[in-house]
């Protein structure tokens, strides 16, 4: 496993955006538009996995949550309002300071730390890493570090741009080219398609529960969709133990007993 998932230049790039992170019209405007879509998906997945009341205002009460690559808290704050005891980490100390200040103003108790996930102790019921994996040193090592932080019976959620021409066009050519996203935010060579993501998760001992696309249209804006070409979310849990070897061994033993 890599010693750290953090790319220093990536941390510096996002850290420079700390000043207006909470401005819905600032450098992080696209994340502000994306966040309600992600929250809708998260709420649906936690309700389904844990059999929660979909009408509850605090469905995550009694649960712990870890948000990796939290920025200045766009996702961590809603998770706290949903009742979770939230730990949120980011590689950019400037973002963590902005996150702490914003949470203080909103009277939210969130444990913010500028640290890599590999250096964090403990396990959490819910682990999120949204729009992060395309910015790390080693995606496989990063996934394994996320899984190490996941408590038994827990839920891991990731999102990332798909590796398609459509995603490159909208995310880099248009969004970055027109200044909707700061230039240099994305490297198409680090985009991950759903099949590759499934492979990374399977190798880390995870079972994919659901894959949902995030699509864009002029009339609906960003929205959940079966179309994964632009961006997608993945929900997963630890894979059940493989009992096939035990089963084969049992059948072989029963077969030998017939000749005893």
UniProtKB/TrEMBL annotation:
The positions annotated for binding S-adenosyl-L-methionine are 38, 69, 90, 130
The UniProt entry, under Gene3D superfamilies, shows: Vaccinia Virus protein VP39 (3.40.50.150)
**What metabolic or biological pathway is this protein involved in?**
Cofactor biosynthesis; ubiquinone biosynthesis
Q: Name one GO molecular function term.
A: polyprenyldihydroxybenzoate methyltransferase activity
Keywords, ordered alphabetically = Methyltransferase, S-adenosyl-L-methionine, Transferase, Ubiquinone biosynthesis
Q: State the reactions this protein catalyses.
A: a 3-demethylubiquinol + S-adenosyl-L-methionine = a ubiquinol + S-adenosyl-L-homocysteine + H(+); a 3-(all-trans-polyprenyl)benzene-1,2-diol + S-adenosyl-L-methionine = a 2-methoxy-6-(all-trans-polyprenyl)phenol + S-adenosyl-L-homocysteine + H(+)
Enzyme Commission number: 2.1.1.222, 2.1.1.64
Question: What EC class does the entry list?
Answer: transferase
Q: Which InterPro entries match?
A: SAM-dependent_MTases_sf, UbiG_MeTrfase
- Any Gene Ontology biological process: methylation
Q: Could you tell me which SUPFAM superfamilies the record lists for this protein?
A: S-adenosyl-L-methionine-dependent methyltransferases (SSF53335)
PANTHER family (alphabetical): METHYLTRANSFERASE (PTHR43464), UBIQUINONE BIOSYNTHESIS O-METHYLTRANSFERASE, MITOCHONDRIAL (PTHR43464:SF19)
Spell out the NCBIfam families in the cross-references.
UbiG (TIGR01983)
Family (UniProt): Belongs to the methyltransferase superfamily. UbiG/COQ3 family.
Described by its record, this protein's role is as follows: O-methyltransferase that catalyzes the 2 O-methylation steps in the ubiquinone biosynthetic pathway.
The entry's protein name is: Ubiquinone biosynthesis O-methyltransferase
* Origin organism lineage: Bacteria, Pseudomonadati, Pseudomonadota, Alphaproteobacteria, Sphingomonadales
Encoding gene (name)? ubiG
């Amino acid at each position: 496993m890599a010693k750290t998932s953090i790319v220093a230049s990536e941390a510096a790039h996002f850290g420079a955006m700390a000043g207006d992170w909470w401005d819905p019209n600032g450098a992080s405007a696209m994340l502000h538009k994306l966040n309600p879509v992600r929250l809708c998906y998260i709420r649906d997945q936690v309700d389904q996995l844990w059999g929660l009341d979909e009408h509850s205002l605090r469905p995550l009460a009694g649960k712990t949550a870890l948000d990796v690559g939290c920025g200045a808290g766009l996702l961590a704050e809603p998770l706290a309002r949903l009742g979770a005891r939230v730990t949120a980490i980011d590689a950019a100390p400037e973002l963590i300071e902005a996150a702490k200040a914003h949470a203080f103003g909103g009277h939210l108790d969130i444990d913010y730390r500028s640290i890599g996930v590999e250096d964090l102790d403990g396990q959490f019921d819910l682990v999120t890493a949204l729009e992060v994996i395309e910015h790390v040193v080693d995606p496989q090592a990063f996934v394994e570090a996320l899984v190490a932080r996941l408590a038994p019976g827990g839920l891991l959620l990731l999102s990332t741009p798909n590796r398609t021409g459509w995603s490159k066009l909208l995310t880099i050519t248009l969004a970055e080219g027109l200044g909707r996203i700061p230039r240099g935010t994305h490297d198409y060579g680090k985009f991950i398609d759903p099949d590759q993501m499934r492979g990374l998760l399977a190798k880390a001992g995870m079972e994919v529960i659901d894959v949902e696309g995030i699509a864009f249209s002029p009339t609906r804006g960003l929205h959940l969709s079966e179309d994964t070409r632009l961006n997608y979310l993945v929900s997963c849990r630890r894979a059940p133990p493989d009992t096939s070897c035990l089963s084969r061994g049992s059948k072989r033993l029963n077969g030998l007993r017939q000749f005893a």
